[in-house]
User: What shape does this take?
Amino acid sequence: MKSVLSDRKTILLLLIPALLFYTAVRLVPVFWSFGLSFFEGDLRGFDFVGADNFVKLFNDKELGQALLMSGKYAFIVTIGQVVLGYLLALFYIFVLRKSSAFIRAIIFFPTVLPTVAIALLFKRFFEVAPQTGPVNAILNGFGLPSIDWLGQADSAFIVIVIMELWSSMGFFAILLYAGLIDIPEELIESARLDGATGFQLVKSIVLPLSLPVLLSALIFSFNATIKVFDSIYALTLGGPGTSTQPLTLYMYKTTFSFQDYGYGSTLALLLTVICLVVTLAIFGSARRDRTKA
Amino acid sequence: MLALAGCADGGGEAAGNGTFDYLAPNENAIIRDAMTFLSENECKAENEAMPLEIETLPQADVNQRLVLLASQNQLPTTFIAPTAELRPGGQLGEDDITVDLEATLTELGVYDNILPAAAAAVKNVYGGRMVSMPYQFNIEGFFYNKAMFEELGLEEPQTWDEFLDVADALEGSGVDALTLPGSQSWIILRYVGNSIFRELGPDALEKVASGDAKLTDPEYVDAIERIADLQGYFGEGTSTMDMQTSTSQLLTGKAGMMYNGTWMLADINNAELNPLGPDAFGFMPFPAVEGGKGDINQYPANTGAATAFSAPLYNEGVGDWLTCISENYGSSVMNEQGVISGFKLNQPVDEVPPLTGEIQDIMAEATDTVTWFEVPFQPRAAAAAGENAVPLITGSMTAQEWAQVVQDAVDAEL
Assistant: This one.
């Protein structure tokens, strides 16, 4: 076996089918899309426009708004998901201990629900008319007037964030739970014997030891949230106005509604670069941290 | 990928193989049901010679699919088509691609089966070409609750000031003066468009589209402001309300007036949806503006989603179908589905409900119609107007800001 795997030709032969498949389904479309960024046109035909689409990026007001929305959303939701997920994971391990399976399943459940169903559910939760939804009913119960949650930019954003956190915190809790459970029990026990309790235990033992999985969760979360599309599409369609329109929705609209495939591809490229840069930045900082440790 | 998806589809594969292929929208069953009915009854002979084959697609995919089919020369015999592409300069706007129905129906001797106002509406929308069959004919205006008007001693308002007085009186009686489904931004744009047409004349938006005027000009902003100022008259939850809920607000007496098209007659004539009965509602035009260049009798009119015919696939069999449809569609769709079309009623029809009859009379007399806000604009400007329509009526955006955003999109495409 060893002699087979040390033969370069054999390795190449084994790798080539997978590499070809990967190239065909992943890399070719990426380069194709990159190529399209230099053209303008629709399915009728394309004209070469050089770097015009890239210049346009800098003068596009709607893009600025969409980038700001994507950034704000990714930042808030990533922190929210990871923090809530981490707190839940700690809760599973230190409070519920062995009996956490049922609660874990319940909290994980929204993750498997279709996004559109969740969006419809939240539309009802925050409904103002013709039926008053539960959230407004509670406000009314305290003598406060109903709020048209999805009708105003700020409140619509809040609803989107709440919906996303509700549906994804269970997933991050499981992810981080898997990391926490790997921390040797003896280590925690010995820290306890040394007098560490509660917050101190988490800060000095649990947090440093779970840093790798926390960083993975951050990368995972950021890359998913910066590409958010379906939940916002189903809940607000980017509205009211374009106030909750993320970069992906703007890209979709440009490409498929306006059939501007060239500029749409340029926007896709921008999104890819953002994801790459942030992922490398997080990886970079993680590596530095480890060498320090 | 897109090309593969297009090829995999049956949209064009049957083209020219002796069938009468109709590509219809998923969302609207009226036309395809009417065509199926005709193929089994009045147009049986035509159907035997050239069988009707219906395929559907979601309305949201029409733009992309039709452009793809056209680029591959795979358009079916007759098809739903995107408005912008059917206008001159659009990909389907030439005589060698889509049939000029005025010339063809005249040649076939059946053009007089089309109501003059319906023909005018089609030509208005598609830049002077009669390129779509008027399978539906709708005019738009305000439906109102007659009993409420009588109780409060209100008359149908003729001017905008009178309209505001009526709205105040209705609000004063404890109901919402107006109900508006904000999730359907096109209705808000109808308000804006009508206000501009009444103030500045029916060609006011064409001027903006061609660059001769700007939405940010003070007279345009004033007309837009008129609509922004209505925000206190719409009930709670307007910004996200759907059409069904809004319709129900009017039909159950929770609101006094609702702007809509005459397709709403189907709901008004439906006893399950309308507990107050079909006689309880009246229909009136969008009011005039004092000193404005528009006229109260210029009803916004449309003939439903465009249905065009392929010019390369036109032959004797298609001509026979066109003749049969022109002669029979109007009375058939009225009898079977109670729908008003742009065709004359050549066969006796069952008794029509009073409001439907009234509206038919208005349509028969009307000669001049106007279009709607989005018609002269390219997709970006239309999208910018629609996306920002709710903020305009909730006060999150001023008329000036709204005009600027839409004008920027118009300028980007000029």
The CA atoms of residues 125 and 248 of chain A lie 26 Å apart. Residues 37-292 of chain A form a domain with the MetI-like fold fold (CATH 1.10.3720.10). The radius of gyration of chain A is 24 Å.
